[in-house]
Amino acid sequence: xxxxxxxxxxxxxxxxxxxxxxxxxxxxxxxxxxxxxxxxxxxxxxxxxxxxxxxxxxxxxxxxxxxxxxxxxxxxxxxxxxxxxxxxxxxxxxxxxxxxxxxxxxxxxxxxxxxxxxxxxxxxxxxxxxxxxxxxxxxxxxxxxxxxxxxxxxxxxxxxxxxxxxxxxxxxxxxxxxxxxxxxxxxxxxxxxxxxxxxxxxxxxxxxxxxxxxxxxxxxxxxxxxxxxxxxxxxxxxxxxxxxxxxxxxxxxxxxxxxxxxxxxxxxxxxxxxxxxxxxxxxxxxxxxxxxxxxxxxxxxxxxxxxxxxxxxxxxxxxxxxxxxxxxxxxxxxxxxxxxxxxxxxxxxxxxxxxxxxxxxxxxxxxxxxxxxxxxxxxxxxx
Length: 383
Prior knowledge:
The chain has 383 residues and is α/β, with parallel strands linked by helices. Helix content is 43%, strand content 16%. The protein has 16 helices and 13 strands. Helix 10 links the parallel strand 9 and strand 10 (256-260). Helix 1 packs across helix 16, helix 4 (89-98) packs across helix 5 (122-136) and helix 7 packs across helix 11. The longest helix has 18 residues, at 338-355. It is globular and about 65 Å long. It starts with a strand and ends in a 9-residue tail after the last helix.
């Protein structure tokens, strides 16, 4: 019998959680019956509709508006959903009030370190982090996107046998609108500047957690003795001006380009030779998977689930947070050894295709649902 799962998510998501949900819905098409409820009329909702995903908007007037709870409960009870699956702080908060109105298991996916989610905004951190922490304790089961996150939950008092691990997955088919390297560089007016240069890219929010300062320090060191590179930074954030000032102060204006928000993320990875991620905290980031899909290897900081993605010296390299000297050394080695760069690119592509595809993720998710229903008396469904 086909499992019916209702997913709740804010709808304001633009990063890894959005990609996770979209890939999961695609992978589950032939495995389970799913529907998404979101609470904000934003890009997430419209893109889901465009993809043919079964999604409905239960719009909240404000974050504290709990009038949506009755609508969700009525839907679950009327349509006979087997599970309710939440994603993110807003959905987790709604789940507190929903739990007493339905009689099905409730689970939530931990996409990030929930204690860091609101760190960039003081008042949100003060209010929403404690609420989300409280809400998380109310769930029946949890899905962590890395073993590292599962261990984090256990260390914070969550029951280990209620936590499942589900690695992020990505659709491996290349999009029809994928731009060639030449087309991408032409669109962003980089063709002349990039000529004869080794292209390094970093796609990340320009904020403290993504630690782009480490990247800029790295290229200040590299620039001391060579200039045959171009760093492309894709993203926006509150550190935008600060980082641009660093580039100016270090005299890197002709070696570092801020692209702002790049909609064509796969075309971005298709245009670069090497991908970087210098975060101080991560889960199982999609930028590594997206680069891998284009056979582009990555060098990343050894945080979160990155060591579960990148095998050191096989698929790429890992360095310690803020060790910009080690990062510079690894970048220059790959600049000078294209054969190793290409070997890493083929290796990470094969690894992601086999282990981290949307199909592999969806199959594991279906198995998690089935196991939860086996463990729950209310999983004995009669239709």
